[in-house]
Amino acid sequence: MPPYNAPHYFQRYVVYILVMLTLLSISVNAQASTANMLDKSDQVTIKTWLSDTENIHKTKDSKTPTYAVNQQIILYIEVITPRWFTGGTRIAPIEIPNVVAKQRNQLAMNFTEKKEGITWTHQRWEITLYPQVEGHFVVPSTAVTVQVSRPNSTNATGVLYTEPQAFSAIIPSGLLSDQSVWVSGRDFSVEQQWSQSNPELKAGDAITRTLIVKGSNTLAMLIPKLIQPIATADYQIYPQPNQLSDSQTRGDYFSERKESTVYVLQNGGQVSFPATHLTWWDTETQTLKTIKFEGQSFHVSHTVNSWLHQYWHWLVTLVTAIVAIVMIAFKTVAYYKTHPLPAWFIYAKAIKHQRWGQVRVLLYRALRRHNDQLQLKQYCDTVDWQQDATQFQSNGITKKLSLFLWQQITQSGRGLNAIRAKCKPKPVFPHLNKQRTKYKKNKEH
Question: Would the pTM count as exceeding 0.70?
Answer without folding.
Answer: no
